[in-house]
Write a structure and sequence with these properties.
The protein has 297 residues and is α+β, with helices and mostly antiparallel strands. It has 2 domains: 40-217, Jelly Rolls (Sandwich); 237-290, no CATH class. The protein is 27% helix and 30% strand. The chain has helices spanning 5-8, 10-36, 197-202, 231-234, 242-252, 259-268, 273-290; strands at residues 40-44, 48-52, 55-59, 70-72, 78-81, 87-90, 95-100, 106-117, 126-130, 133-137, 141-147, 150-157, 160-164, 173-175, 180-184, 190-192, 224-228. The protein has a 17-stranded mixed beta sheet that branches. Strand 5 and strand 6 form a beta hairpin. The longest helix has 27 residues, at 10-36. The chain starts with a helix and ends in a 7-residue tail after the last helix. Mean pLDDT is 86; it is low at 1-36.
Length: 297
């Protein structure tokens, strides 16, 4: 009698099912560490504002971050942590862009005051960009301030390798414990043995305390969508470096398809060359789409 294969080979079916379940388990175990390594908003005295792609979200502690996310602190500080122990805090009104949310922590400061801390060199590293400087921190902590006309760094502990992003021939400068570095818009990087009084008196008082790891206390939560991003959300980031501004324009240029956003961008963003180019390209593409084709028969 010709029986169906399923009836003639019950052991094969059972074995195949077991193999499928095993494969699914292996895949799940491979994926879980990736989620576990994502950067997380570990502490927020008030929910942060999160810009993901072209949408604005409300993000309390526990929100897992992705590469390309922009996090903005309101009137209170916000702390972010990575799985390797790197910690980064935004002062009131400060913002950052997450460049790597996984195993190689990296971010760009967009504006304001911030503080960072990393574990021993063998255990953790953090790459930062702020204005015209970039730094590598491992086993170090310090305070950053990005203003429209300058970038300031004070190293609390350890040593940080600091570079000027607009000087390809420049060698990294080692900034050690209690040293202060400043890069002005028109002057090269300068290093002094201590921070000036104005820097100390202006920084957020919360930065006097060390950054403590608290991510284990923040259960995972999803951000709450609020609205699409508008031009006013982007207008305050002119102090970002050219490469970062170009990246931001690439992320938010699709919003130019919205007439209301485009009108806002023409009045509030067009002074930036990157946005002028984006507006010009969008207008040219729209004109081509609206131009009737002439065929000769």
């Amino acid at each position: 009698m010709n029986l169906p294969n399923q009836l003639r080979c019950p052991k094969r079916i059972a074995l195949g099912g077991a193999r499928g379940a095993l494969a699914a388990t292996v895949l799940l175990l491979a994926v879980l560490p990736a989620f576990a390594q994502n950067a997380v908003i570990s502490h927020a005295e008030a929910p942060a504002r999160l810009l993901r792609k072209t949408t604005v979200f409300q993000a309390p502690a526990g929100v897992r971050l992705q590469a390309g996310d922009i996090v903005e602190a309101g009137a209170r500080s916000v702390q972010i942590e990575w799985a390797n122990g790197a910690r980064f805090a935004l002062g009131p009104g400060a913002s950052l862009l997450v460049k790597d949310a996984g195993g190689l922590p990296a971010l760009s400061v967009l504006r304001g005051w911030s503080k960072f801390a990393t574990n021993a060199p063998a255990g953790g590293r953090l790459s930062l960009e702020a204005g015209a400087v970039s730094l590598q921190a491992a086993g170090a902590s310090g305070i950053l301030h990005l203003a429209p006309d300058k970038t300031e760094l004070f190293v609390e502990t350890g040593t940080v390798a600091l570079s000027e992003t607009d000087r390809a021939d420049g060698q990294p400068l080692a900034v050690g414990r209690e040293q202060y570095a400043q890069r002005d818009a028109v002057r090269p990087l300068a290093l002094t043995p201590r921070a000036p009084r104005l820097f100390i008196s202006s920084m957020p008082r919360v930065f006097l305390d060390p950054l403590v790891a608290v991510s284990s206390r923040a259960p995972a939560v999803a951000p709450t969508p609020l609205r699409e991003v508008n031009a006013a959300d982007l207008a305050a980031w002119h102090e970002a470096g050219p490469a970062l501004r170009k990246r931001l324009v690439a992320q938010f240029a699709p919003r130019l398809a919205d007439p209301a956003f485009r009108k806002e961008a023409e009045s509030t963003l067009a002074d930036a060359p990157e946005w002028r180019d984006a507006l010009r390209r969008h207008t040219a593409a729209r004109n081509r789409a609206n131009t009737p084709l002439n065929y000769l028969f």
